Amino acid sequence: MTNKEILNIIDRVQPLLYTRYNSQPNVELHNNIYERLSGIEGMDGEYSPHGEFDWSCGTIYLYTLRMVSVEQVIKTLIHETVHSTQSKAEFDFHYNNGCTYDNHPLENQARYNEKYWKEYV
Nearest CA to 24 among 32, 12, 16? Predict the structure, then answer.
């Protein structure tokens, strides 16, 4: 998908997510996590997530190389918007006490909400 297509989806879906989750984080597009963190264009690595939420600045980062469909963009927006409503302290607590992505209760909650993606098409 092009950045323009992704931005059009964000512009259409984000106000609806705000209504549902009462949270409207900023959204930024980056090719992947390696480019964003290093600041070096073309930087690549082994694995890049679809997106992430940064509690310190209230921003969702969408990684465009992973945004291959309307479904993926919307699911990622939902997932990260749910994180924006959660407690960073609780989020970190679970990871620091043995949870993995697969059994982390706040990740499970975010994944659960992804099932509503078709409501935003």
Answer: 16
Radius of gyration of the chain (CA): 14
Question: Which of 48-68 are b and which e, b meaning 16 or more Cβ less than 10 Å from the residue's Cβ?
Answer: bebbbbbeeeeebbbbbebbe
Over residues 29-86, the pLDDT tens digits come to 999 999 999 999 999 998 889 999 999 999 999 999 999 999 999 999 999 999 999 9
Per the CB < 8 A criterion, the answer to whether 114 and 79 are in contact is: yes
- Alpha carbon distance 34, 115 (integer Å): 28
pTM: 0.94
27/77 Cα distance (integer angstroms): 9
Secondary-structure percent of the chain, ordered helix, strand, coil, rounded to 5:
55, 10, 30
DSSP 80-121: HHHHHTS-HHHHHHHHHTT--TTT-HHHHHHHHHGGGGGGG-
Nearest residue to 80 via CA among 30, 9, 26 = 26
